[in-house]
């Protein structure tokens, strides 16, 4: 692609093009029109009189729309172009594109305007892994319609392209004969529908779908604009002295809106997809973490996430999908490879954390919203999740969550959030065998039992079950603090191997232990000291793996990079144990980094020392936008303001980083209705209060 890629998206439908608006995808290039894990357009290239156009600028209007300003190839700094071309595109049920050509000359012109269109119908896994197709492509041509199709047995996907103008259609695209008067204007609207994708409306019939004058385009864009405005209006309003924080806050809300999608079982309600381009679908872990981050700002995301994941909760033992009764799914896919079970993602259950986190989210959602009815409705799902921890996850019979894939061919090897091949290692770089019990999994299990006990008393009216869960949690905490504590290093081991040996690398995972509450108070200060020490803290944030560990690499995916999502939960954990200033320092570092990414935090960035680079170094293949990175600034705001539901009240106990000045968050939704929170940095003004 020429220039930086331009992405527009709406849920799991997205378009990635170059800065001319063209799509010219290669087999391994994630550009094109994608919907429900299938690429419905791999070529979409505009020419005028056989020439490609030169980009002048791109107006990336909102997440769902973009406008491309172009001139033919004769335009240079020395020769003015006599024509200009504007492409306006909006995604939704495929996408609509309006092409406008302006004649700036005093003479009339006749032009041949051509849109080449092809579709390879690549499964997203095929794009990622460069595998070949097994079905058959076909094409059908109508007067104003081009249909590109693909069929493999019952798996059928079609791209239907229609125009509101008279056009000559052939198997390779659409051609317009354009006559422009002096200083005249010509406009055409094209609609591209992805047929067979989940939740995509049927295409219009040839010649009947689009109305002239761009009204249909405007109507579609107006609907998207209204939807975004409504979403933003429902969120709390931020006022602060730091302009960059305001930019990042709005960017986070807009990106969360962009990443919302409604799986078929959710009806009109939405949950967050994981990230562009590879993960525009439902992920158990990612959707739960993002819903936790966004609870004070968009609690409905958590409600839909809980319902959808509960509907797909594991019901049987299936080795191909790594499924167990009670287990929460890892990933749901709708493409060809999932349909023919070449991948196990229909759905796939290979994670060891989402099941405990499901109970954590259900309890936190009830604490925040007071929605006891949902807690009661999802009692069977929550009980099944708690049962999974003890009955199916304890692979070694030691009372810990261990993981080992049963699908050896296509299942995930590492089933914690650090799921790359080399993420779990000893300090000397050796990789442990399987099964593995990473430390944060035990923290999540502890938290799930504590929160499950609360729900059992409050919502399920089962005090005996609550007593049992609390006793199990207490025993787990004692056992964990004995077995995982690296005495000579004063930190928790990254994991235990199958023999119970400590996998002794120092990692960011210890911050999640603080968030879960499993850390003994006597050990918390040492953990905080490590998190804020030079080996882990880069000045921007906490690295995934400490400097000095054998596998440390500042641009290694899980072995030295800084993940904003990771840091948001670490800060929440530090705050839980009273390390307020440390939590605020991490929040400041990550929010400072956001300014270098125009307010949109990437999935990860380099773990180099801040003094060395003076700006955060982007990880080369990071997803952006990515849901739990988008949610990180929201959780940092909650942590800095000290927002916590207590009974029917919202407690505000702020600790802002030095120099932050005044921060106000208005209309925070919850069981209390709407409340406002105010804070000033300690170095300038008095502490905050709630109104």
From TrEMBL:
Residues 286-596 form the Mannosylglycerate hydrolase MGH1-like glycoside hydrolase domain. Residues 9-190 form the Putative glycogen debranching enzyme N-terminal domain. One of its GO terms (biological process) is carbohydrate metabolic process. This is Amylo-alpha-1,6-glucosidase. It comes from Pilimelia terevasa. The lineage of its organism: Bacteria, Bacillati, Actinomycetota, Actinomycetes, Micromonosporales.
